[in-house]
Amino acid sequence: MMTGEFAAIERLRARLATPPEGEVWIGDDAAVLLVPGGSVMLLCADAVVLGVHADESFDGLDDLGWKAVAANVSDIAAMGGRPGRSVVTVAGPADTDLDLLYEGIRDAATFFACPVVGGDLTNARDLVVSAAVTGSIASGRPVLRSGARPADEIWVSGRLGAAAFGLRCLREGIATGAPGVAGPTGETSATEVAIAAHRRPRPSVEAGLTARATGATSMIDVSDGLGADLAHIADASGVGVSLEMVPRAEGATLEEAMAGGEDYVLVFTVPPSARIEDAFAAAGLDAPVRIGACTADPRERTLCGRPFAPRGWEHSWG
Amino acid sequence: MMTGEFAAIERLRARLATPPEGEVWIGDDAAVLLVPGGSVMLLCADAVVLGVHADESFDGLDDLGWKAVAANVSDIAAMGGRPGRSVVTVAGPADTDLDLLYEGIRDAATFFACPVVGGDLTNARDLVVSAAVTGSIASGRPVLRSGARPADEIWVSGRLGAAAFGLRCLREGIATGAPGVAGPTGETSATEVAIAAHRRPRPSVEAGLTARATGATSMIDVSDGLGADLAHIADASGVGVSLEMVPRAEGATLEEAMAGGEDYVLVFTVPPSARIEDAFAAAGLDAPVRIGACTADPRERTLCGRPFAPRGWEHSWG
Question: Got the DSSP string for B99-121?
Fold first, then answer.
């Protein structure tokens, strides 16, 4: 029987040990670990595969390397943490352009300030890049998926679907230009922005720090798709989800905004009293968008009163 | 031009950032990172691939899972550290027996007390299991590869070549029994011991702690082969290596003992005044073996006065 990734994770989680008081293990964006002295550290790991997370016909190996680091940075951001250090393992064919791959790894490690401190190289048929990233919380507790309460507002840190639209542009050959290149008018087109969002996604570290400091009760990064990721929050918190709107990136369809994933936008919940817009403005961030509210019915998953499917991208497991 | 793994690592290391005072990044068994409060943590990552690190025709997926964790535990042991927590990513075909794979991962995480706290599942053609493990140092500093001095003695924590002999037994069909099964006399045969050493290698955590506490000046785990790994110490420390003998596991050839790798025996250097045998006996460990000494000629790599090739297992990179 073929099952999905989330069911497989749940099954495996039951086989593994349970955490001591004060730690959070499998089931959130990153693990929360106790450090001698009483502070906490975050730790997460994600793997990307050429042909799955990047397509060699229109993405570079440097983009794959960027994504391996960025996927983890986004998990740290979703806890309200700041990334610290990275380790990266590469399994791949002997003719892999390691210099190009590591250029993207280094670019992301530099951009997100989580330098690569170790790793491993081994041969395999597919190119698989796996990274683990540590993170820190300046003070207080990280934001889990499980803290949302009925009547909490649901916010996103930005518009959704850009990465999915960018991938569609590349697949359909709408554009093949380099990401972020300015057009003849000096403007960067929506297509170019979307392609850059696909190739070099930007995790929302500052938005996560700001949301945590402003009282976020739960948070997750939109990596599988807004519907799927909000369902993770709702499941972990035991609340329902009533969405009023979904802010789409320019050019993206509603489907791409709801299920596209890999945008690394953050979705979080706050009590109605929280001054989220003021806090984001004070931090110099793009305005966040209130998209709905949590409800008391844990089965509710609605957009404008109509049920939405909580499915996004899942890998298959037999 | 095809180059080896070590040359590729050196090339990539030059592209990456350099550590701040007090931290050690790429180039040792594990990275040494500063933690708020002044203590250090260790962090390492290794990947294993089905068909490279385990052969499905005579190894189980549980053995591959064990190895992914054990390879990292051995890196922590080689710093004189104690393993803490693990994260594991699995990239593989949809029909992978995840339950069997995770049984081995869990067995190793339990045995070495480094529970799995997170990870990721993704699809790929090859089965690639990548783990990152944290470690701690009770007090003082970890043991690096770079601290050996001329006249330091060279010791190993046990006999070498068992894993390579076990793999040969399986390949040649000398034995196909389950690992560690007692024979008719109630004894475990050398073949069975060797097969167990190949399938379920046991990193030398207690030996590493004891060597560090007894004044080890440098240390590495024998994962690529004694010759290659001692060469890493000699290169990093700027010393020569003069070996007098190599203690072979029962059944292993000298070639298997020198170049076999994956034994997870530790090789370390100490000043001649260190009471290594007493310390190992007091800790209830098998007797360590003194195999030679460091010399002042940084080019020397000799066994019984004759040069040995410092090569062990390396993956290929174009």
Answer: HHHHHHHHHHHHHTT--EEEEEE
- Kindly compute the dihedral angle of the four CA atoms of residues A76, A80, A81, A83, in this order, to the nearest 10 degrees: 50
Tokens of A154: 């649901």
pLDDT digits (tens, 9 = 90+) for A82-133: 999 999 999 999 999 999 999 999 999 999 999 999 999 999 999 999 999 9
Residues of B in contact with A90 (CB under 8 A): 47
- Residues B74, B80, B86, CA angle at the centre, nearest 5°? 45
Give the orientation angle of helix A61-77 with respect to helix A205-213, to 10 degrees.
Answer: 0
Q: What is the reported pTM?
A: 0.93
Output the furthest CA–CA distance in chain A (Å, rounded): 59
Can you spell out the DSSP letters for A65-78?
HHHHHHHHHHHHHT
CB contact under 8 A, A124 and B35: no
Length of chain A: 318
Q: How far apart are CA B190 and CA B169, in angstroms?
A: 10
Q: What distances in angstroms separate CA A234 from CA A61, A145, A222, one per listed residue? A: 36, 8, 14
The residue of A13, A32, A120 whose CB has the most chain B CBs within 10 angstroms, and thus the best one to mutate to test that interface, is A120
* Model ipTM value: 0.91
State the smallest CA–CA distance between residue A191 and chain B in angstroms. 28
Residue A109 DSSP SS3: helix
Q: What is the DSSP string of A155-170?
A: EESS-B-HHHHHHHHH
The pairing of strands A266-270 and A218-221 is antiparallel
Angle at B229 between CA B134 and CA B146, to 5 degrees: 70
